Amino acid sequence: MTASSNRFHVRGVFWRQFLVFAILNVPAWTEPIVIAVWAMLFLLWGPGRRGVMRNLKAIKPGSTALTNFFRCYRVFWNYAWTMGDTVRFRELRVVPDWEFVGWQHFETMQRSGGAILLTAHMGSYDLGAHLFAENSNQRIIMVRAPEVDPQTHAFEETRKSDKVQIEFNVEATNLALDLLHAVRDGGVVAIQGDRVTPGLSDVTATVFGRATRLPAGPFALAMAARAPIHPMFIVRRGRRLYRLVACEPIRVPAIRNREEAFSEAVAKWAHELENVLRASWYQWFMFEEMAT
Amino acid sequence: MNAVRDCPEGKWFPSRHRFALARMFAFVRSHFPVRPRTDVDHILISIHPDHSALETYTVAIWFYVTLTCYIAAVLPIGWMVTAPLIAALAVQIVTGSISAMGSVRANHLHRNSMALFGLMIIASAWFAMQPGLVRYVAWFFLAVVAVNAIAWLVMIALRNSVRELEQRCGT
């Protein structure tokens, strides 16, 4: 594929630039019309649509393909609004409304010093990080998968939030040491724990009755740093309205048997993930089928 | 960040609305009690003119339905069914065309909003003079614009009361 055709690929830089243009030009009261059309157009993205529909089949067993097609539209609709809110925040500093559930767990995390914040592909990383920065003095390091397209990667690099440090999980060994130091120094490392990046270690878990693979990194980091894992989710509740759901911390025991130490923690994480996804399936922005 | 914490009344602050009619409605609504939130631990309400979902969806649906009626009125009967799709595309083509005037990196939200409404007022004035049912849609559109203009004058007169109201949550 040529560089110019990559621009227009679904993960290409053109769509990111186009979204910035839209945020600066589309009046708020025409947004529902515009987003309804674009969410429909993105249904033409076959791999993404199929990935979402297969995951929906796992979350809602027994559902028909037609029903999941319409549910898929709802996922794309929510994704478009979330992307819009993120870019609006970056370009115009407009923040959405927030609701907080499980605030005591959030406060526990702030008191605990270094911690691992485990989340899923939901809501917006940037908005969540901004909220975190407003409510905490802790340093936050976000770990994310790098953009597939180099131009998109460069575009995102120039628009990184100044409130958080972003690390791309490409060089596992070097990054692991940096993250370990960050947690030991009292920082919070935010990782998405619902998708395995190729080339990185994973653990087996059961999610919605299906054997799947989840990233092992957060659990290994928690064990090495002797820091708790805080499951936290950002759920879009409506137009410019998000909910931060903080769950009870998970501890990984520092024992010799790694498998045994991880299994209980992974099961707890899988349970929290299932609970949130069952209630908010329409905004699980996981465009690949769960790893099996 | 202009926001209020743990103040559910903030949801109905006129400053969270864009159009004068919506701001006036919010002002009246804010004089009635708001149910306290027991389902969440804390809330943070952002004060920004485009934050009302009710206002945005109402205006979007009204604008879209009106435009669809206008497009259906000029299409041959056999093509009327395509009017909703054409209306959805027309909004974007017009917005994109107006946006093309000026810098790509500049914020044109206010200008584009004024231009879209301006074009719609011109279209409504024309359709209001036409025979057929579409003239009622056009008259309704023009009536709402007129009422909004009156509400704008009322809200200017009420600006001190609005300020006092919004100081309730310490903004």
How would you characterize the overall build of this protein?
The complex is a heterodimer of chains A (292) and B (171). Chain A is 49% helix and 18% strand. Chain A contains eleven helices and nine strands. Chain A has helices at residues 3-7, 13-25, 31-41, 46-59, 65-92, 103-111, 125-135, 150-158, 172-184, 217-225, 258-279; strands at residues 97-101, 115-119, 140-144, 165-168, 188-192, 202-207, 210-215, 229-238, 241-246. In chain A, strands 1-9-8-2-5-3-4 form a seven-stranded mixed beta sheet, with helices on both faces. In chain A, helix 3 packs across helix 5 and helix 4 packs across helix 5 (65-92). The radius of gyration of chain A is 19 Å and the shape is globular. The two termini of chain A are 29 Å apart. The model of chain A has no long low-confidence stretch (mean pLDDT 88). Chain B is mostly helical and 171 residues long. Chain B has helices at 20-29, 53-74, 83-99, 109-128, 134-157, 159-166, and strands at 3-5, 42-46. In chain B, helix 1 packs across helix 5, helix 2 packs antiparallel against helix 5 (134-157) and helix 4 (109-128) packs across helix 5. Chain B is elongated, with a radius of gyration of 19 Å. The interface between A and B is large, with 35 and 41 residues.
